[in-house]
Design a protein that fits this description.
- It is built from twelve helices and nine strands.
- It is of the alpha/beta class.
- The chain has two domains: about 240 residues, 2-enoyl-CoA Hydratase, Chain A, domain 1 (Alpha-Beta Complex); about 50 residues.
- The chain has a six-stranded mixed β-sheet, with helices on both faces.
- Helix 5 runs parallel beside helix 6.
- The longest helix has 21 residues.
- The termini are far apart.
C-alpha cells in the first residue's frame, strides 16, 4: 500500500484523535494566555464564558504552554489561574457526551481510547506540574471542579480568593476523584475526611478550603494575584537548587517510610554543601 493509499484509507474511529484534532484547530482561538516576566510566568485559563471548562483547545494550549515553560531554565515559578469568575468548571460536558457515545458504539479501542485522553492530556498536564523543577502556584479565583480542581491541588502551593468555590462534583456525576485528586485529598484530609468530602459533595469557599488544609492562603479576590506574586517572590529568592531538590524530596516523602525519607534527605544534603549559595550563607553567618 502506498502512502497515498494509506492517507485515503478510512481512519479507525477514535474519540481521542478527534479531541486532539479539535484542540489543534487554528480556528479555536486563544483559550490560554501566557505572560512571562523574567524568572516567572502567569498562565491564565481564558475561556471565561464557559467558566474555563476543559475544551480540547484549552487542554491542548495549556499542555503546550506548560511544556515550554517547564523546559525554560530561566522560568522558576508559574502561577496558574482562571479568567473571569471561575478557575475551571472541569471537564467539558460536550466532550463527555462524545466519549459516552463512542463507548456505546463499541468502537475498536473501547475504553482505552478515552483512557488515552485522560492519561496523556489531563494526566500529562498534572505530571508536568508535579515532576518539573518549576514551582507552581495555583491562584483559585472562583469555582474549581473536576480535573481543574485536580490541577490546582497538584500545584506546589494553592491559594484561594474568598469567593473561590471548591466543588467535589465527582460523586453526583457517577465519577471518582480523578487525576491525582484522591492522593491530594487523603493527604490533606486523611482517609475518613476524604471519604466524607466525596460522600457529602460539599462545596467549600476559600475560607473553608483553607481551614481544611486544601489551600495555604485565602485573600480577598482583588488581592489574589498579588498574593500569588508574593509566593513567586519567595520561590525565586531561594538559591535555584534549593527548591529544585526540595520539590521531589517532599513529594516522595509523602509515600515514603520514615527511614526512607531520612535516607533521601541524607543523600541529597551533601550536594547542597557543594553549592556557592550554601557556602556564602555560612560565611555570612560566621561574619556576624
Amino acid at each position: 500500500m502506498t502512502a497515498a493509499d494509506r492517507s485515503a484509507a478510512p481512519r479507525t474511529p477514535s474519540v481521542y484523535r478527534d479531541f486532539l484534532d479539535a484542540g489543534r484547530d487554528p480556528e479555536a482561538g486563544e483559550a490560554v494566555r501566557v505572560e512571562r516576566r523574567g524568572d516567572r510566568a502567569t498562565v491564565t485559563l481564558a475561556e471565561p464564558e464557559r467558566l474555563n471548562a476543559l475544551t480540547p483547545a484549552l487542554v491542548a494550549q495549556l499542555k503546550a504552554a506548560l511544556t515550554e515553560l517547564t523546559a525554560a531554565p530561566d522560568v522558576r515559578a508559574v502561577v496558574l489561574t482562571g479568567d473571569g469568575r471561575g478557575f475551571s468548571a472541569g471537564g467539558d460536558l460536550r466532550m463527555m457526551d462524545q466519549a459516552v457515545e463512542s463507548l456505546t458504539r463499541r468502537e475498536p479501542e473501547g475504553t482505552a481510547d478515552v483512557w488515552r485522553w485522560i492519561r496523556n492530556e489531563f494526566g500529562g498536564i498534572a505530571r508536568l506540574i508535579a515532576r518539573s523543577d518549576t514551582t507552581f502556584v495555583a491562584a483559585v479565583n472562583g469555582p474549581a471542579a473536576g480535573v481543574g480542581l485536580a490541577w490546582a491541588l497538584t500545584c506546589d502551593v494553592a491559594i484561594a480568593a474568598e469567593e473561590a468555590v471548591i466543588v467535589p462534583a465527582f460523586g453526583r456525576l457517577g465519577l471518582l476523584p480523578e487525576v491525582g485528586t484522591s492522593w491530594a485529598l487523603t493527604r490533606a484530609l486523611g482517609y475518613q475526611g476524604a471519604f466524607a468530602f466525596y460522600l457529602a459533595g460539599e462545596h467549600l469557599d476559600g475560607r473553608g478550603a483553607f481551614e481544611r488544609g486544601l489551600v495555604q492562603e485565602v485573600v480577598p479576590g482583588e488581592q489574589l494575584l498579588a498574593a500569588a506574586e508574593r509566593w513567586c517572590d519567595r520561590a525565586c529568592a531561594l538559591p535555584p537548587h534549593a527548591l529544585q531538590m526540595a520539590k521531589p524530596l517532599l513529594r516522595g516523602a509523602a509515600d515514603a517510610t520514615w527511614d526512607g525519607a531520612l535516607a533521601l534527605e541524607e543523600f541529597a544534603e551533601p550536594t547542597c554543601f557543594t553549592t556557592g549559595a550554601f557556602a556564602g550563607a555560612v560565611r555570612g553567618l560566621l561574619a556576624r
